[in-house]
């Protein structure tokens, strides 16, 4: 059964009409009511155009164009149109694109300590996520990213608490993961976590995820329910175990040179509007996570809960926390623990 993409009440088209714009390109923002933009920026993401992250990014682009009197034009490229994550990180660093939303764990291939926010079972709920990410933990990771010339906007965007899906057998206990071929994003922390859970993980970038599951190269994967719905994984996955084994978010990274080309007042307009949209997107994802479960059930997926403590015990017994505490270092670990309590 097809799932309706989410439609937001304020469409970009309506906003553009209000601004007197006529045409609208498929991917890009175009504002013929204004003079040619002085600053033209490319914004890339790995999520489909209809996902709240791109909907809210488009809204930010509209507001930024208006508030900068047309000086800033942002073109949004969703769904890996310009490449897969690791390629996009390189393009961002080289200035081929100007903005990129990327999971902290994927960014950790470049800045290892950025993986800290994805530590297994670190966050119990959303209030503890935002308290940490809008507080000292977020500030710490942004500082680390800045060392690699990646300027993260203050507010991180949400990719949800992650759960495990499979095609053949449900994961009812941690033992069901034994030897299971799982797709994980390309990131050492993810691979390490699923090895420590005794699964057999393979790092696969989002553009190949669906076909890898469809052809059985891997049996399962893990993601937030909203991502599972928007990438249509319900077509190739049957079971979902509500593990909440980690939380994942998207940093909105800017190329430092591109951002610093902007006069200070326009930098303010850009970062304020991105942050406004990030907060709206967090609320979208939280709300949609609830309806996603019902929609995925209607599409035929079967859900079950698990004893999370048993998963965490397995990670502990296999030395996962000890290994990552050493790898990421005292500062990262202490900053996480200051927010969420003792880990491991
Ligand atoms: O690759 C994934 O699974 C995704 C889309 O959730 C991330 O970007 C981490």
Helix and strand arrangement:
Layout lengths: L11 H7 L20 E6 L7 H16 L4 E6 L7 H10 L4 E5 H4 L18 H8 L2 H12 L2 E3 L4 E10 L14 E4 L3 H9 L3 E4 L2 H9 L5 E4 L1 H6 L8 E17 H5 L3 H35 L3 E4 L2 H10 L2 H9 L1 H11 L4
Helix pairs in contact: 2-11, 6-14
Q: Give the SSE order as H and E letters.
A: HEHEHEHHHEEEHEHEHEHHEHHH
Number of domains: 1
The CATH topology label is: D-Maltodextrin-Binding Protein, domain 2
Bound molecules: (2S)-2-hydroxy-2-methyl-3-oxobutanoic acid
Structural class, from helix and strand content?
alpha/beta
The fourth-level CATH homologous superfamily is: Bacterial extracellular solute-binding protein, family 7
Stretches with pLDDT under 50, minimum 5 residues: 1-28
> How far is the first residue's CA from the last residue's CA?
42 Å
Q: State the helix count.
A: 14
The level 1 CATH classification is Alpha Beta
Q: What share of the residues lie within helices?
A: 40-55%
According to DSSP, the number of beta strands is 10
Q: Which strand-content bin applies to the residues?
A: 15-25%
Mean pLDDT: 92
How does the overall form come out from the CA principal axes? globular
Main sheet specs:
10 strands, mixed
Description:
- The chain has a single domain (12-338), classed as Bacterial extracellular solute-binding protein, family 7 (D-Maltodextrin-Binding Protein, domain 2).
- Strands 1, 2, 3, 4, 5, 6, 7, 8, 9 and 10 form a ten-stranded mixed sheet that branches.
- It has helices spanning 12-18, 52-67, 85-94, 104-107, 126-133, 136-147, 188-196, 206-214, 225-230, 256-260, 264-298, 308-317, 320-328, 330-340, and strands at 39-44, 72-77, 99-103, 150-152, 157-166, 181-184, 200-203, 220-223, 239-255, 302-305.
- With 344 residues, it is an alpha/beta fold.
- α2 packs antiparallel against α11 (264-298) and α6 (136-147) packs antiparallel against α14.
- 44% of the residues lie in helices and 18% in strands.
- The protein is globular and about 60 Å long.
- The chain binds (2S)-2-hydroxy-2-methyl-3-oxobutanoic acid (X2X).
- (2S)-2-hydroxy-2-methyl-3-oxobutanoic acid (X2X) is lined by residues 46, 103, 106, 159, 185, 206, 223, 227, 248.
